[in-house]
Amino acid sequence: MVFLNETSKILDLHLNIKQELLYNTRVNAFHELIEKGDLSQALDLLKIISAQKNSVFGQFDLMGAAIERDDTMIISEVLNLITTYHGKESSLADFCIALLERCKKTHAMRLVQTSSFRLSSAKLNYYIDREIDLDRIEVILDLFELCIPKGNLEQRDLENAMSKIVTFLRKNKAMINLIEERLKGIGKGLTPEMNSLLLKLKEQDFGIINNENVPTHNLISNLIWRNDVEIAMMTRNLVKFNRISGILSPSRSAVSMDMHRIPVQNFQKAVSSQTSSNEMTCVRWKKHCWTVDSVVKDAFNEIMKGSRSFTRAEAQRAINHFNDLKMKAKVPDFMAVKMASVVTIHLGWEEGEKVLEMHYMTHGAELRFAGEASLMDEQVEGAIRRIFDNMGVDAYKIARHFYCRLIDLRFCKVKDGVFRIFMQDLLNK
Fold first, then answer.
1. What CA–CA distance (Å, rounded) separates 360 from 367?
2. Is the pLDDT of residue 49 over 60?
3. Which of 169, 255, 334, 355 could form a disulfide with 375 if both were Cys (CB 3.0 to 4.6 A apart)?
4. pTM of the predicted structure, to 2 decimals
5. How far is the C-alpha of 2 from the C-alpha of 317, rounded, in Å?
6. Distances from the Cα of 168 to the Cαs of 9, 34, 101, in angstroms?
7. CB 330 within 8 A of CB 363
């Protein structure tokens, strides 16, 4: 912290940059305190970080450590903090997840039986993303086993959650079978849609059986579905591991090596159309449920007027006006993404990245982590296209950095439309 203070004095850093550095310093210190077992100090820091974000951070890590030590005081304090920021139901649901992550299923069962919390679709999506990233999907299955009999979640949310899980686990035969068995074991009948999804995944993994009794149109439908999921999953893996392998770089041959996995006809369809709804895969963002204040929208449009021909000075002035707007009003994510793309083409990727990170630190973190960023697919595609249209020879590299950063900061997930833009550029080259 002393180093940060001295550095800030010497470099005369902007307030937003100072806040970001301070946040990262506190996060690192928080995890170090947990590793050392100093949970009281970690709790104090958790309260400070949560106040800075206006959203609770690190509750699962701290509650997990407290559960291991049977420290009920720390657990109670964390639950009170979650209740303050997000409500009683969120605190109980988070505690249930923390117990399941520490293999305390009996305790989690008692919690579910003695409380009446409900799981919202946003909260459930957040938990699924977390456990997929941590490779602990059994935690979600345990959660379903406890909550389904009590009616803690809607049937529609359960179906959406199962579709998301089994699509990501489509290569894992044992896990797909386990999911099916667990649902049947808790007396939850599979809907026709869920049965169809599981069947298609099994056909995809282990080959479609050549059976004369199977109608040809069913086989063709299954094959097309299989190819669409292949495109979505390949995209997810390309983006997820790009920093290590450089797969998305056009100078590497890895993309060409993977091309044989996508049948030519379906691939051409994927890169030639931007609008057909039946070509979208299961990996997509939900319809937006947010609104934009007309005053904020008008102010932003005024800032962006003439942005295509900004000089460097005008681009910097636009950043300053945008920062002023964020101080006065709630700015949706799509404005930050558009501003970042404009700044990138006029001032370079490093400056554009700063715009994204500053917005990430100050606006809408809870909604983004719950999968509800105030940003539509077309706006993500528009930002990427803007970079491709204006950055010349370096466009691919810069657009890749930009897109991966959007995903890292939870502004969006993998998009079919964006994937097509990248692939079309590769094909053109």
1. 11
2. yes
3. 334
4. 0.47
5. 32
6. 47, 31, 20
7. yes
